[in-house]
């Protein structure tokens, strides 16, 4: 049975840009009431005015701030039906060029931020017998040089959701994970603009791992997943095959293939580019905020 979003309260993290902002617009167009959570207050305020939404400036690694964001949403709307744990960042470069704080920050936002978000909102979602959508990534079941912390965090997010699903099922709460490939957002555009090595790798990756998907297509898939309370959402759908073949994708054979198309020269180029940039995150990223 379709889970009608009319009148439902959606609590969306990472809502200032990209997937989160577009999801908020489309959900509001379907009659949902939306709470926008993120770090860029001015963007959140503008979007809130456009959608008559609630907004709260908040770092998802700050539990007290998240608890306050949840409380203010409940004060405004009376509860929370759906949580979309979407906030995410990606540091630039390999483990060798660090800095380690950027690697740790990526894990803190992408994994710990999801855990904190869900923990803060779960009592209200449980009361509503609602839905939790956690945005993971194709990086949960594939590997690429320069994405160690990102891949680790997204794999952790998937397993967190898998266990949460088992824990909440008897209480009427459904849990889904979304696995997008490269989505045409500021995060991906920043990496593509900053790193020629990334552009080269993207061209050489096999289908469907080389696909760049419009954000509108991604959001439509996420909303369909929420409305059907789906366990898994793949963007594009062909990624389901990649996950099914995960033992092959992460095998020694796959390592050899990736090393052959990239190898040391690509890694060296990436590290040189990141050193020259002098920063660990994309131009529009808020990853370097404490």
UniProtKB/TrEMBL annotation:
Superkingdom per UniProt: Bacteria
Keywords: Oxidoreductase
Keyword set includes Oxidoreductase: yes
A single cellular component GO annotation: membrane
Domain spans labelled Ketoreductase: 8-185
Gene3D superfamilies: NAD(P)-binding Rossmann-like Domain
Record-level Gene Ontology MF annotations: oxidoreductase activity
Annotated CDD domains: SDR_c
Family: Belongs to the short-chain dehydrogenases/reductases (SDR) family.
Protein name: Short-subunit dehydrogenase
Source species: Micromonospora violae
Native organism taxonomy: Bacteria, Bacillati, Actinomycetota, Actinomycetes, Micromonosporales
């Amino acid at each position: 049975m379709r889970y009608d979003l009319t009148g439902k309260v959606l609590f969306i993290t990472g809502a200032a840009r990209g997937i989160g902002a577009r999801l908020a617009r489309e959900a509001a167009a379907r009659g949902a009431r939306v709470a926008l959570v993120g770090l860029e207050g001015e963007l959140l305020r503008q979007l809130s005015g456009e959608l008559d939404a609630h907004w709260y400036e908040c770092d998802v690694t700050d539990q007290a701030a998240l608890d306050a964001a949840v409380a203010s949403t409940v004060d405004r709307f009376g509860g929370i039906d759906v949580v979309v744990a979407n906030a995410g960042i990606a540091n630039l470069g390999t483990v060798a060029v660090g800095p380690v704080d950027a690697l740790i920050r990526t894990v803190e936002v992408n994994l710990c931020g999801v855990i904190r978000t869900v923990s803060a909102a779960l009592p209200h979602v449980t009361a509503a017998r609602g839905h939790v959508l956690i945005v993971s990534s194709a990086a949960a079941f594939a590997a690429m040089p320069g994405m160690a912390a990102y891949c680790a965090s997204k794999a952790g997010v998937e397993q967190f959701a898998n266990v949460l699903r088992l824990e909440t099922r008897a209480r009427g709460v459904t849990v889904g994970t979304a696995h997008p490939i490269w989505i045409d957002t500021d995060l991906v555009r920043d990496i593509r603009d900053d790193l020629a090595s990334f552009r080269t790798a993207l061209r050489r990756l096999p289908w469907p791992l080389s696909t760049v998907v419009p954000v509108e297509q991604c959001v439509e898939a996420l909303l369909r997943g929420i409305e059907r309370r789906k366990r898994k959402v793949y963007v594009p759908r062909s990624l389901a095959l990649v996950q099914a073949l995960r033992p092959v994708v992460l095998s020694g054979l796959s390592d050899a293939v990736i090393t052959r198309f990239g190898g040391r020269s690509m890694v060296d180029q990436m590290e040189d580019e990141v050193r020259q940039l002098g920063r660990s995150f994309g131009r529009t990223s808020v990853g370097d905020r404490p």
